[in-house]
Amino acid sequence: MPDEDSQWSSSQRTDQQRTDSQRTDSQRTDSQRTDAQRTERRLDELTDLFRRRLIDDREKQRAFDALYRELAQARAVADGQYLVPLVRRLINVMDRLAADAGELAGSVVAELTDILAMYEVEEIKPGSELFDPRNQEVATVVDAADAEEDGTVATVRRSGWRLGGRVLRPTLVDVRRLPDPGLLI
After folding, report:
1. N or C: which end of the chain has fewer CB within 10 A?
2. Rounded Cα distance, 71 and 12, in Å
C-alpha cells in the first residue's frame, strides 16, 4: 500500500500544485487587473488635469488680450490728453522758426522734426497735386486755367501734421477751380 499512498500523495501533490498554480495565475491576473485599473485612474486624473490647465491657459490668454486692449486704449487716451496738445504747440513754434530764414532756426526745426518723428508725428507730404480733403484744408480758391487744373493744389500755405493715422493739423492749401459759368454776368 505504500505505493498507493505514494501515488495518491503524488496525485494530491500534482492537484495541489495545479490549484496553487491556478491560484497564483488568478492572483497575477487580479494584480494585473488592479495595476491596469490604477494606471487607468491615474491616466484619467492626468487627462482631467491637462484639460483643466488647458482651459485655465485659454482663460489667462483671454485676460491678457483684454489687458493689452485696455492698455492700448489707455495709451490712445493719454496721447490725446497729453501728447497731442504738446505736439500742436511745438508745431506752431516750428512754424514761427521756419518763417525766420536763419541757419539756426532751420537747424532747430529739423531737430524738432526728428524728435516728433520718434513719437510717430510726421509732416503730411502731398501724395499728388489733387486736393485731398482728408489731409488738406482749403484756404482760398483760385481760378483754374483749364479742366486739367480743376481740383489741384495751387500753393501750400502751411504744412500739415499727423500722429500715426490721425491728422493733427491739415495742410492749408489754395485750390484751383474752374469758374462757374452761371456766375459770370
Report:
1. C
2. 86
